[in-house]
Amino acid sequence: MPRNATSKTAAKSAKPAPRAEKKADVIKILTEDHRRVTEMFDEFEKMKKKGDADEEAKQYIVETCCAELTIHAQLEEEIFYPAAREAIDDLDLLDEAEVEHASAKQLISELSAMQPGDDLYDAKFTVLGEYVKHHIEEEEGELFKKVKKSELDLEELAEEILQRRMELREELGISSDEEEMEAEEAPSTSRKKRSVH
């Protein structure tokens, strides 16, 4: 066998070449955000239906969800919506999205001044969930479809969004998903409770 030839055994055990890493696009990133907050709203509703009185768990869900929504809204308002305004011909849809953000921000502000057990705490978070779910339906069902058909560079927007998200998380004192996963793998004595406000 020639020196540069590989045996069948060596060829079988050789690792395949790494695939080119597929870059995320902005629609996928924003949709993942939607799924994450929807799961939090659903978890809160399950707790309510079961009559779960764990106020600390409720508060954690509310604070985490509100922080995620705050960051998501800011990313859309600073980066995604302005780019979409230039790329698509449906300004009414974008105007409505921004008004929906304003309504959500109002409820988030009210919730941040409340505690579980306060009058209307559960109701406000439930209504916030209804607003957000409606907003998600419109974004994913209409806006995202129009943006996908446009000439927007979705990968470039994704990079901008990811960079700005890291900055906002740092400003708000929220650990990134990677930091949380590392913390979960660390011994329990070194874990800290995540601060969301």
TrEMBL record:
Domain of life according to the entry: Bacteria
InterPro entries: Hemerythrin-like (IPR012312)
Database matches in CDD domains: Hr-like
Comp. bias (Acidic residues): 176-185
Region (Disordered): 1-24, 172-197
Family matches, as Gene3D superfamilies: nmb1532 protein domain like (1.20.120.520)
Residues in Hemerythrin-like domain copies: 26-146
Biased composition (Low complexity): 1-17
Protein name listed in UniProt: Hemerythrin-like domain-containing protein
